[in-house]
Design goal:
The chain is mainly α and about 350 residues long. Helix content is about 70%, strand content about 0%. The chain is elongated and about 65 Å long. The structure holds iron/sulfur cluster (2 copies). The site of one iron/sulfur cluster (SF4) has 16 residues, from helix 6 and helix 7.
Length: about 350
């Protein structure tokens, strides 16, 4: 028998949901959603589950991830029950459910906890710089090692176990039989959705939004590749230097657009930004900008006298790698891609 959590509405409100209990089940939201199909019908079903507190059914569902938050349903809801925002809140809640450490839930629910995490990581970087007597060369060397170690460790210790937990909730626990060959053939869907987010194109509003996200994904992966694998800050190759400048400019340009959209609140999806949304775009912006500035200072030969700049960049980087990537909004990118993968292997 499905378990019922009578306090689910209250719990979900901590993840950003508004008054979805106002829903009177008219179905308009499902009718206007261009991604909802006979086979995958939402958001009304998820609203019913949330109202009833059917936690286990939500945990085993991929539907919150099949929504790409265009906001059409919210615009047309006669009850102002905010179905689009509910789907977004369910995704945040699911992230907290998948995360074995419990930190995602804590950071989503509590702004003071997020501020504390950011402050502690900043203090750790400053303490390390003090320990090294502000020796720029040593700090930069450690920064580069940190990038490589952090990526591998965060993936192995946090993200991979969380993906296994997600698979458990969605495939294993409900007893869905998936032939092994589907896991292999479905990898194509995983890569396509991960790198192109092409499902966004199914939303009515979406060519520009899809293009912005596509550019951001490639800009972000480009910066990661250039700094971690091509050692941008120490490279003497003109190609690597220019590539680093280009990808960092892409990142801070696209994030400026995202920030201005959140400030202007013109799009439905930007009207109700949570602290985690702000942190994600703000840190991406600062990462692109500070990386650009560090390399510029290196090229102008003035970084040695401005070590504060590298420290600022390192603080942003460490906060990004240890807080936002494993526990914050960055995980949407990963879980959504795997949701498309699990959806494909279930249906094949
Ligand atoms: S959320 Fe709004 S549009 Fe959707 S079923 Fe409820 S009342 Fe109707
Ligand atoms: S936000 Fe858009 S994609 Fe998501 S359920 Fe509503 S209409 Fe569908």
């Amino acid at each position: 028998m499905a378990s019922i959590n009578t306090g689910f509405s209250k719990e979900l409100s901590k993840f950003g949901a508004f008054d979805f209990n106002a829903c009177y089940n008219c179905g308009t939201c499902t009718a206007v959603c261009s991604l909802s199909t006979g086979e995958d019908s939402f958001p009304r079903e998820m609203i019913r589950y949330s109202v009833l507190g059917l936690e286990d059914d939500i945990k085993s569902s991929l539907k919150p991830w099949l929504c790409y938050y265009c906001g059409e349903c919210t615009t047309h809801c006669p009850q102002e029950a905010e179905p689009g925002e509910l789907m977004m809140s369910l995704r945040r809640w699911l992230i907290s459910v998948y995360d074995w450490t419990g930190l995602s839930g804590l950071l989503y629910r509590s702004l003071p906890a997020s501020i504390t995490a950011m402050t502690l990581t900043a203090l750790a970087v400053i303490a390390y710089a003090l320990y090294e007597h502000f020796d720029l060369e040593k700090i930069m060397h450690t920064g580069h090692i940190f990038e490589m170690v952090a990526i591998a460790t965060v993936f192995a210790v946090i993200l991979l176990p969380n993906l296994i937990r997600m698979w458990n909730f969605i495939i294993l626990k409900p007893g869905i039989k998936v032939p092994f060959k589907n896991y292999v053939t479905g990898l194509r869907d995983l890569l396509v959705h991960m790198f192109t987010q092409k499902r966004t194109l199914g939303c009515d509003d979406s060519q520009v939004r899809w293009f912005e996200h596509l550019i951001l994904v490639f800009g972000y992966l480009g910066l990661l590749f250039t700094t971690v694998f091509l050692d941008w800050f120490l490279s003497e190759s003109t190609f690597v230097t220019v590539l680093g400048y280009v990808v960092s400019i892409i990142i801070f340009t696209v994030t400026v657009i995202f920030v201005s959209e959140r400030i202007s609140k013109k799009r439905e999806m930007s009207r109700k930004s949570q602290p985690s949304d702000w942190m994600f775009v703000a840190w991406l912006f600062m990462m692109g900008l500070s990386a650009f500035a560090v390399r510029l200072f290196i090229d102008l030969d003035i970084l040695q006298n401005n070590i504060w700049l590298y420290l600022a960049h390192m603080i942003i980087l460490v906060q990004w790698a240890l807080v936002i990537v494993p526990f914050g909004k960055w995980t949407h990118f990963l879980y959504r891609s795997f949701a498309m993968y699990f959806d494909a292997i279930k249906k094949n």
